[in-house]
Amino acid sequence: MLFDFDTIAPQDRYKILTSTIVPRPIAWVLSLDTEGRRNAAPFSFFNALVGDPPVVGIGIGGRRPEDAPGTWKDSGANIRATGQFVVNLVGYENREAMNITAIEFPREVDELEQAGLTTLPSVKVKPPRIAEAPVALECERLAIVEVGIDRAIVLGRVLAVHVRDDCVLDAKRCHIDTPKLDLIGRLHGGGWYSRTTERFELPRIPVNAWKPRD
């Protein structure tokens, strides 16, 4: 079945993308506005894009219906204004709190308070990190790629990463117990997610071990 994106509505393109590109990791973004007020929100159009320099990308958009065209969500506006943010990754035990921070609260409402979350100071950026998250990436804005009147891709350079102590196997060798992080990813529809605890191993094949097909 061919879905020609030139002939279908934007909401249908979104459904196709989110139903097929799965699972998608969740960027639980914590940012500050210019007056120091906190904002927390999850975004599933997210991933690590480059290892050196370390760069992550987040697709941000979807203004509130009452906002004027060209208006960003709070996270995007804050990153544009301050250039700093923290990407927290979502563990299974964080799922309910993350879902609360996705509610379209008025701008004056602190999502962290509503979700019963606490924060810890960051080291290299002003926004704090979510204490309950198993991983937090301190980031500075590298670039913003405008892709629509109210949508953009934020590229962030990772300055530091915090990993929960009990998930670090060997700090000197940078070995992490990834299954113990128990991270979740976004699937399709309104509320489907997956866990990363189910896995299988598929080693890379060295070229000298491959027998070419005739």
Short description:
The chain is 16% helix and 35% strand. It has 214 residues and is of the alpha+beta class.
In words, what does this structure look like?
- The chain is built from 5 helices and 14 strands.
- It starts with 9 loop residues before the first helix and ends in a 19-residue tail after the last strand.
- The chain has a single domain, classed as Electron Transport, Fmn-binding Protein, Chain A (Pnp Oxidase, Chain A), CATH 2.30.110.
- The protein is α+β, with helices and mostly antiparallel strands and 214 residues long.
- Strands 3-2-6-9-10-5-4 form a 7-stranded antiparallel beta sheet.
Task: Summarize this structure as a short list of keywords or feature phrases.
214 residues; alpha+beta; Pnp Oxidase, Chain A; three-stranded antiparallel sheet; 5 helices; 14 strands; 35% strand
Protein topology:
Elements: H1 10-20, E1 24-25, E2 27-32, E3 38-43, E4 46-51, E5 54-60, H2 74-82, E6 84-89, H3 95-101, H4 111-114, E7 119-120, E8 129-130, E9 135-148, E10 151-163, E11 168-170, E12 175-176, H5 178-181, E13 184-186, E14 193-195
Antiparallel strand pairs: 1-13, 2-3, 2-6, 4-5, 5-10, 6-9, 7-8, 9-10, 11-12, 13-14
In CATH, the homologous superfamily goes by the name Electron Transport, Fmn-binding Protein, Chain A
Level-1 CATH class name: Mainly Beta
Average pLDDT, all residues: 93
Contiguous runs where pLDDT drops below 50 for at least 5 residues: none
Instruction: Give the strand tally.
Output: 14
Tell me what the CATH architecture is.
Roll
User: Helix-strand pattern, N to C?
Assistant: HEEEEEHEHHEEEEEEHEE
Structural class: alpha+beta
Widest sheet: strand order?
3-2-6-9-10-5-4
Reported by name, the CATH topology is Pnp Oxidase, Chain A
